[in-house]
């Protein structure tokens, strides 16, 4: 892997785990409570190197992973947490070259993961009805793929400032992912735009939403969809300190439910 260069986004990590994102620029400096560090002293280092402040505090210099990037990027709306994004990529079976549609884009956390997973032969179309969120997502996506050295090559991205409840312009889609309040209102359009064998995945925080979605799919579109499962993920960190080995006191408990269905025709 090439050494860190000007224009890259890196995270400086202190011994307490606090992260400082900086965009490397020759001649610039980073100032924090423990002093100042010149960007020139970082440019040219290897990913994972250490630098020292004038107060002899050591900071690690790291190219952010996707999950680390998401935790520090600008947010307009609530993002899908990395633990859920990981499962979504697997449960929706996002593959290189896939043609995916998602709504809403929000801050673009899931969009970034989708673009990375579909790769340069794939396409992600995002519907977002609020232009202020679309702008935030745009900037987050540009920064990740333009400035993070380990971002990889994204698929083609098309952002549409549209309301998905009013229709889907695309057809023959491999995957549709909905992260919005009333996904059942998009089912009619999803049925028309998803190819046979394609996967619909919906992400919602409350079980009432999932119940309504599931019932609507079963009663109105049951001929054309097979429900594949409803999931919730819990991820609990552990810590080891001396002789103490136990779960961390705090965890992100409930975030959302993942609902998955597959388009297929049961009429023979
Ligand atoms: C929870 S946020 C999405 C977060 C996003 N998945 C992420 O990981 O950053 C929900 C988004 O859906 C958008 N939205 C809600 N209803 C919509 C609709 N009918 N069509 C398009 N976007 C919609 C909202 O404006 C909001 O930005």
Brief summary:
With about 270 residues, the protein is α/β, with parallel strands linked by helices.
- The number of domains is 2
Q: What's the total number of strands?
A: 15
Q: Helix content range of the residues, please?
A: 10-25%
CATH homology superfamily name of the largest domain: Vaccinia Virus protein VP39
Number of helices: 6
Q: Quote the CATH topology of the largest domain.
A: Rossmann fold
- Low-confidence segments: none
* Biggest sheet: strand arrangement: 9-8-7-10-11-15-12
Shape: elongated
Assign the structural class, choosing from mainly alpha, mainly beta, alpha/beta, alpha+beta, or little secondary structure. Answer: alpha/beta
Q: Please identify the top-level CATH class of the largest domain.
A: Alpha Beta
Strand content: 25-35%
What does this molecule look like?
The protein has 268 residues and is α/β, with parallel strands linked by helices. The protein has two domains: 55 residues, Vcp-like ATPase, Chain A, domain 2 (Roll), CATH 3.10.330; 196 residues, Rossmann fold. The strands form four sheets. It has a seven-stranded mixed sheet with strand order 9-8-7-10-11-15-12, with helices on both faces. A four-stranded antiparallel sheet has the order 2-1-6-5. Bound molecules: S-adenosylmethionine.
């Amino acid at each position: 892997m090439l050494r860190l260069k000007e224009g890259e986004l890196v995270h400086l990590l202190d011994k307490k785990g606090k992260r400082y994102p900086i965009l490397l620029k020759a001649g610039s400096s980073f100032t924090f409570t423990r002093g100042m560090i010149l960007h020139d002293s970082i440019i040219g280092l290897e990913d994972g190197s250490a630098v020292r402040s004038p107060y002899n505090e050591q900071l690690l210099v790291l190219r952010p992973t996707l999950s680390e990037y998401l935790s520090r990027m600008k947010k307009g709306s609530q993002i899908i947490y990395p633990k859920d994004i990981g499962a979504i990529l697997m449960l929706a079976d996002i593959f290189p070259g896939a043609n995916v549609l998602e709504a809403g884009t929000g801050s673009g956390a899931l969009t970034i993961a989708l673009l990375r997973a579909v790769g340069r032969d794939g396409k992600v179309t995002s519907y977002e009805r609020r232009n202020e969120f679309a702008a935030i997502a745009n900037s987050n996506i540009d920064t990740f793929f333009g400035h993070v050295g380990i971002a990889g090559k994204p698929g083609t991205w098309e952002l549409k400032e549209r309301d998905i409840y009013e229709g889907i312009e695309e057809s023959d889609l491999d995957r549709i992912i909905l992260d919005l309040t009333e996904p059942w209102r998009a089912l009619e359009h999803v049925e028309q735009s998803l190819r046979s064998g394609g996967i619909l995945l919906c992400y919602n925080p409350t079980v009432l939403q999932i119940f309504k979605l599931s019932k609507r799919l079963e009663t109105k579109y049951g001929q054309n969809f097979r429900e594949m499962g409803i999931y919730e993920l819990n991820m609990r960190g552990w810590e080891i300190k001396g002789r103490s080995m136990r779960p961390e006191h705090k965890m992100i408990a409930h975030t959302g439910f993942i609902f998955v269905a597959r388009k297929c025709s049961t009429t023979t």
